[in-house]
Every structure is written in C-alpha cells, then in structure tokens.
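Still learning. Any example?
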Amino acid sequence: MSRPVANLVLLLAGALWGMGFVAQSTAMAAVGPFLFVGLRFLVAAVAMLPFALREHAVAKTGLQTRDWRAFAVIGLFLFGGMAAQQVGLLTTTVTNSGFLTGLYVVMVPFLAVLIYRQWPHPVVWPSAAMALAGIWLLSGGAIERLTVGDWLTILCALFWALQMIFIARHAAGSGRPVTLAVTQFAVCAALGLAVALLVEPIGLDAIRAAAPEILYAGIFSGGIAFTLQAVGQRYTTAPQAAIFLASESVFAALFGAYFLGERLPAAGLAGCGLIFAAIILVEALPPLIERRRRTA
C-alpha cells in the first residue's frame, strides 16, 4: 500500500469516528460508560475476528510472544482512552471534550521523540499546530473552566497518543494489523465489562435501549475504523497519522450538521479549513521537498 492510499484509509477512519461521536454520547442515556465501552468492543472483536483468522491463515510467519505482549499493551491504552473519554463526558461539555481529545495531535510527535527518539519530518510541527488550532475553532474558540471531566479527557488524549505511537511501531513490524486490532478490542472489552460488573447497574432493558448505538459504535466506528487505523499506520508515521485522524473533528461537525441540523459558525468553518490545510501540508510538502532535493 502506498503512503497516499494509507493516508486516505486514515481519513476514512476519521470519518467513521466522527459519525460515531453522536452514538457514543447518546448511548449513556441508557447504559453506563464502562458497560458501553465493554459491549462496544465486544461487538468490534466479534465483527473483525473472521478477518483476523483469515489473516492468520495466509500469514507466512507466526507471531512471537513479544508481539502478543505489544498488542495487549495497545489494548490497555485503547481502554484507558475510551474509559477516560466516556467518563469525562459525564461531567464536561461536548465542546471541551472535542478540543481536549484533539490534544493527541500535538502529544504524538513529542512522545515519539521522548520514547523512541523518533524525530518527525519538520513539516509535522506546524501541521500539528494548525490542526490543533482548527479543532479549537471547531469547538467554539473558547473553553470553559476545567472540571474533573476535562482532566479525564486530557488523560484520554495521552492514552490515544500512546496507542498511535505503539501501533505505528508494531503494526508494520508484525505484519498482522487485523490481529492487532482484534486483540486490542478483546482486551478493551474484557476490562470494560469487568469494571462495569463492579461499579455499574446492568440490565437487559437498558442494553436493548442502547443497542443501535452499541452496534454502530462496535461495528463501524469501533471494529472497522480502528482496524483501518492499524492498517493505515503500517505505511505512515504516527505524527502524520495523528494529523489525518484529526479529521474526526471535521467529520463530526459535518455529520452533526447533516443529521442533527446543527450549523457551523464562521469560526467552525475556518477550523475545518485549517485541519484540511494541515492534512494537505503534511501530505504534499514532504515529497515536494524530496523531489526538489533530488533535482538540485
């Protein structure tokens, strides 16, 4: 897969995540956040398991213990991010959550340097700043006084950043992106359901009421989108992937306008423009610089 195609795959993942935000928010009218996380990723694991089994059948080499260990750690990061975001939504506004979650765009390149001494292409830094500014404008260009939910959402952004960095490192190395995705889903589902059994009421009527949201979030914005992320990140760097996945904010706004009748103000439209400008910059500028260097 070429890098441009991989980046289009990441854009598609961002679109699926953007549409899933509505389901993620409304489901908690019926079920608790940990039960929703557990059921969502249980559905995701079951939905994608046949593809992982097919990947295993055609694989030329087996996975090592270190691969399974890395996949499980990625699942822990996924659970940490999902749980912190879901619980945070109970005590923060959608505006604050949308912006604070987007902090992973700037966390990823910094953490990549700190953990792996992996310096991104110089264009990533201004592109990340542009994407974050776009998310800021999309969220209204203001942020209310930080609550416990806001700090949980910042923690969520840190977990997302770590998940992206580890996927970038292990999806390509193992050559088994679908198996990686299903493993992280299974870990996330097991932890979510375990916590839900301890701290949340569980009833079949509540689960049936939230079933449409659970199924959409599990199959599309969970199983398919996170698997697309794992596949796409085999062919691009984590900092570049973070910028493409930041399109989630744009798609969330577009789907909100289409399905819920919400209207973007001028600042929101400017935010969409900045995010897409960052995507174009990080996609087009590096090969252009490389081409000029070769012809110089």
The radius of gyration is 19 Å.
